[in-house]
Amino acid sequence: MFKKFTDRVTSAVSNGGAAIFGDEKVRRLESMGFTTEEARQALAATDGDVDRAAELLLVSRNNEERNTEGGGGGNGGTRRRTNPTRADDADEQMRRAMEESLKVEEERQFKAAAQASVSPPPSSAPQGEKKKAPKKKATAANRNNEAMTPAGRAAAERFDSSSQRFGTGATKTKKKATVATGKKSPIRQTNYGGGGGGTGVLNLKSSGLTTHHPNVKVPKKMQDKSKEEQILRCASRLKPHPPAVDTLIRALTAVRDDPSNPKFRRVNKNTAGYQRTLHNKPGAEDMLLAVNFRRVGTDELILDSSAVDPALLYLGISALEGVRESTEYKEAKQLINFEKEIREIQAGSDSSEEEAIKRANFLSKCPTEPADGRGALLQLNLGSEKVSRRFDGDDILADVLHWIGAHGSEIYEKIISREWCLVDLNRYPVAPIDCEKNQKKTLQYIGCWPSGVLGVRPSSEEWKSGANGDKAGSVRGLGAVSASLLH
Question: What angle do CA 233, 236, 241 make, to 5 degrees?
Answer without folding.
Answer: 130
